[in-house]
Automatic annotation (TrEMBL):
Chain ranges of the Aldehyde dehydrogenase domain: 38-454
Pfam short name (any one): Aldedh
Family according to the record: Belongs to the aldehyde dehydrogenase family.
Name of the protein: Aldehyde dehydrogenase
UniProt xrefs under InterPro entries: Ald_DH/histidinol_DH (IPR016161), Ald_DH_C (IPR016163), Ald_DH_N (IPR016162), Aldehyde_DH_dom (IPR015590), Aldehyde_DH_NAD(P) (IPR012394)
GO molecular function, one term: 3-chloroallyl aldehyde dehydrogenase activity
Organism: Seriola lalandi dorsalis
Gene Ontology biological process: aldehyde metabolic process
Length: 498
């Protein structure tokens, strides 16, 4: 059989070797192996291995155990990949996934129950249900911004219903390696697999035909979507985009600066949900920039390079892109020191023009451009001129301003007087409008990976109105049906007909 022959490194050496800590090339997943893992997961799914609630609960509990027992390993791996401080790893990667898993454990029974649909006249004696049916084998591709969270939060939703293959990002080799090593020890070996693949090879994997594909990453989104379309595979794409942050003249500048600075410089700005640029009311610009400067001092000290709380960018390619944009945009107000060897670049820019390079593409780095507007209308017009972002942020103590921004702009999510938190809530769906399709988190993940099957359960005892449907067609029957239908629309007169 194919799976027993040695994996062949063609076509064109599909998966590049990733490097482990000691520098020797590590495991790579060859195409044949991929085909084999998918086949194994299919067989397990078709055998009904994942159907039982207690199987799913056991997997979710195992995931929580994995995060608890290997906290140090995750901290270490993300420290190597992203220079990520322990605090950030524990809070924004591990705790987040753990909460998601515990939420699923507590609610799984409820999610799995059939939902009853309101009855109407023609179905008074029948039962109408919507059943959540697992889709099958799903493919989850993570991203390097939050390598653990972006793989495991969707995986929680998949475990709640399906088999899954996950592909962590090749950019964060240590974290990917760790997931590849740990998951087989904790999760079912037939239903859940980790593959290590290069970004360029993902479209070919997608073409192997899964039942659903979930992907979080800007650059490759359209290639993945095209590959999925070729096999008519449904997709959930979370792609990011430039998230605007409006700062009104009526707002608490100190708190605003703190919350914006935290959101932008957290994980060295490598986030799909961080504010990408500030649209600041001209009257408060000077005060805001000054306050942001003070915050960076508070957070990272007088020399942020020495700070143990500031991450670094993931690789030189992304660092160089950010540096090139930085040098051709606006004027440095804070920071501006660029050290290639350390992938270090935290900066606040002012006097940025809409046409500057930094406003033309996503900034995955600790750079915050500040633009000015003269009023709320200008801010709303500016936001609506761009592509619909994943998030819109608005800071104001005036609730009218907040509700205008919320209702007059369109985005995946909206948050007032804070940043990022809306994307972490288990109870809120996380997804975009133009920046992708579909969403996940909590119940929404479960629904993303389930098919909602409509079921009508009838008896054969007797037909009330429905016997009028049979030929030969009579005008009398038609007018009776029309009458019955109009009655049921007014939702009264049940008894007369029965």
């Amino acid at each position: 059989s194919m799976s027993s022959s040695p994996p062949s490194p063609s076509p064109a050496r599909w998966f590049k070797a990733l490097r482990t800590r000691l520098g020797e090339p590590c495991l790579k997943t060859y195409p044949l192996e991929c085909v084999d893992l998918l086949r194994r997961a299919r067989v397990a799914f078709q055998a009904g291995r994942t159907v039982k609630e207690n199987f799913r609960l056991a997997q979710l509990e195992a995931m929580v155990r994995m995060l608890e027992e290997h906290e140090c390993d995750f901290v270490d791996a993300l420290g190597r990949d992203l220079h990520k401080p322990r605090f950030e790893t524990v809070v924004s990667e591990l705790m987040l996934v753990k909460n998601e898993a515990l939420h699923a454990i507590n609610n799984l029974k409820k999610w799995m129950q059939p939902q009853h649909v309101e009855r109407n006249l023609s179905t008074t004696l029948d039962e109408c249900l919507v059943l959540s049916e697992p889709l099958g084998v799903v493919f989850i591709m993570g991203t390097w911004c939050s390598p653990v969270q972006m793989c495991l939060v969707p995986l929680v939703g998949a475990i709640a219903a399906n088999c899954a293959i996950i592909s962590p990002s090749e950019c964060t080799a240590h974290a990917s390696e760790l997931l590849h090593r740990l998951i087989p020890f904790y999760l079912d070996n037939e239903c859940f697999h980790v593959i290590l693949a290069g970004t360029n090879d993902l479209p070919e994997v997608v073409e192997l035909k899964f039942d659903h594909v979930l992907f979080t990453n800007r650059g490759e989104g359209s290639r993945i979507a095209q590959a999925a379309a070729r096999t008519l595979t449904p997709v959930t794409l979370i792609l990011g985009g430039k998230n605007p942050c409006y700062v009104d003249k009526h707002c608490d500048i100190a708190t605003t600066a703190q919350r914006v600075a935290w959101a932008r410089f957290h994980n060295a700005g490598q986030s799909l949900v961080a504010p990408d640029y500030i649209l600041c009311h001209a009257d408060v610009k000077e005060r805001l920039v000054q306050a942001l400067k003070c915050c960076l001092m508070q957070f990272y000290g007088s020399d942020p390079r020495e700070s143990r709380s500031l991450g670094r960018m993931v690789n030189l390619e992304i660092f160089n892109r950010a540096r090139d944009m930085l040098w051709r945009s606006g004027k440095v107000a804070v920071g501006g020191q660029v050290i290639e060897a350390e992938k270090y670049i935290p900066t606040i820019l002012t006097e940025v023009a809409e046409s500057d390079p930094i406003m033309q593409q996503d900034v995955f780095g600790p750079i915050l451009p500040v633009l000015t507007v003269n009023n709320v209308d200008e801010a709303i017009a500016f936001i609506n001129k761009q592509e619909k972002p994943l998030c819109v942020y608005a800071y104001s103590s005036n609730s009218k301003v907040i509700s205008r921004l919320m209702s007059e702009t369109s985005s995946g999510s909206f948050c007032s007087n804070d940043s990022v938190l809306q994307s972490l809530m288990v109870a809120l769906p996380f997804g975009g409008v133009a920046s992708g399709t579909g969403s996940y988190h909590g119940r929404y993940s479960f629904d993303t990976f389930s098919h909602r099957k409509s079921c009508l359960l009838r008896g054969t005892r007797f037909d009330c109105v429905t016997y009028l449907r049979y030929p030969p067609y009579e005008d009398r029957n038609l007018s009776l049906m029309t009458w019955a239908s109009s009655l049921s629309q007014k939702s009264q007169g049940w008894c007369q007909i029965l």
